[in-house]
User: What shape does this take?
Amino acid sequence: MGKFKVEVYDFPRQEIEAENAEKAAWEYCYKDQIYDHLMKSQSNEYVSVRNEAGVLTEFRVDIFVNGLDLDLVKL
Assistant: This one.
């Protein structure tokens, strides 16, 4: 388990403990307020995840009628 700093544009950064960056991104996206924002936006959003060593990983959030999907963005 590691600690990750996760954020989506216009929302506060949160520190999340997870096994990896993708799991931290999922946990962040499924918080009520953020999930509602993502579902209402109906546009691509990006989730930034920074690990304890400062390595950045970004995911694109794809919105579907029945939920969200995350795709790794190559930096």
Summary: The first helix runs from residue 21 to 29. The radius of gyration is 11 Å.
